[in-house]
């Protein structure tokens, strides 16, 4: 693949999820810009302490670890079953 073809493939929208989400991305971007401008114009400070964000981050990290471990366990179990199938097929031959 040439360099030109690579960039054509990168920016190709057909078959991509980009057209499905671009409206939401633009909407959330505009919303965040409005909130940021209002906060700076009204000189509003943060109402929550930083510790709340740390607690939420710890909970999300724990959930991510548990999901990863569960996925790895499913993969390992499937690997064992597939190995058993291969061994049984070898025994038949």
UniProtKB/TrEMBL annotation:
It is found in: Cell membrane. It is a multi-pass membrane protein. One of its GO terms (cellular component) is plasma membrane. Pfam families: Bestrophin_2. It comes from the Bacteria. The chain crosses the membrane at residues 21-41, 53-70. One of its GO terms (molecular function) is chloride channel activity. Keywords: Cell membrane, Ion transport, Membrane, Transmembrane, Transmembrane helix, Transport. Belongs to the anion channel-forming bestrophin (TC 1.A.46) family. This is Bestrophin, RFP-TM, chloride channel.
